[in-house]
What does this fold into?
Amino acid sequence: MTTDITVPSEGPARSPRGAWYTSLFTWLIVAIIAGIVLGALWPDAGSALKPLADGFIKLIKMLIAPIIFCTVVLGIAHVGDLKSVGRIGVKALIYFEVVTTFALIFGLAVGNIVKPGSGFSIDPQTLATGADAVAKSTGNGELPHTVEFLMNIIPTSVISAFAENELLQVLFFAVLFGLALAKLGSKVPVIVSFVDQSSHVFFLIIGWIMKLAPVGAFGAMAYIVGQYGLSSLASYGKLIACCYLAAVLFILVLAAVVRVFAGVSLWKFLRYIKDELFIALGTASTEVVLPRIMTKLTYAGCSRTTTGLVVPTGYSFNLDGATLYLSICVLFLAQALGVNLSLGEQLTAVLVLMLTSKGMAGVPGSSFLALSATVTAIGHGSIPVAAVALLLGADRIMDSMRVSVNLLGNCVATFVVANWEGQLDKERMRLVLDGRPVPPLEDIDAMSGQAEVQAEEEAMPEVAAQDVAKG
It folds into this structure.
């Protein structure tokens, strides 16, 4: 994938920037700090603001399924190479399995060195009500078994996949639909044009909704601090410090991976997605930024096909932050109860988590369910399943760690797979990450045959403004 980019001889000028007080990034920081202060000073008032966060998240979620459908269908239909789609899927799954397995082992290594559970000295007899507390937190749910998880990728009906917002099911149908359009080629220009125009509408709406991001982040932070309090930071200080240390070190590993295998500077990319990163941190959700992340990855040179396939799939198969957290928590529980897990028991934990972590997305209390399954599989009588309840007070505080690593992990995966498949425009990527102007992304309209700006830019008003300034 290449794009002809003409740059003035004196070097490209920096893209125009608005005043700092109009920046979404500035308003997000203000909103997050205000939410923390309100939740700490007036916990009841902070807890009552949860609807602000829930409303914002629901606004985004109502458009995720159609945006994924349009992006994947158009990407496959325009490429028209059926083999390329299969290669991207296989390469993405290989990458996901390698990286998540490494994350599990990395988490165990950090947990063995830091020993976050040492000093707790928990008496197992005091955990009698722990199982009830975990059941209440998870709604008595359970993680799907491997076969069940794979079968659930196939929707009962197309309508149910969209109605229930099942991203993997929507992705599965979108791939089939896109392949069919690619096969039919010029026979179905009306359908391709309809999907294309629909994508413009959906991305435009996303651009409007994102203006409410500071309100959602304010409500989420006020609720979290008001509901759970800052006292949990002291009680679980060592575990929290261990998890965040592991996250920072793992992000450095991701930086090395994306530099070596895609030539991307992770630091520059972090500056590029700072708004989305703060929205995800503020709302404790990566789903709310999925449309904008796909937009920015495409704008930064990743092909629409690769982005559309890798990012949604990664939300279920590439939960780097969650797997890192789970492996540390297994050791935390053992150390808090004074149990010394053997190497074989730790390897058993890794094998179990390799399977359970794939079915976590969208399951309430999934981290507790995965840990319960792992403790059961280890079969160490001194670690009751009820011990998982020890993490109830700290789990929500870990959201920022999990969210940031999950988000960056999926972005890195997209760059690596795109470069692996030869669908990364490196010249465009360098210019975008340097903050320099680039031509708008263009597609050929199926009806008119004329070049038009891709729909993804509708979700980025700042990009449109830059294009106008350059024009």
User: Anything to note?
Assistant: The mean pLDDT is 79. The longest strand covers residues 442-444.
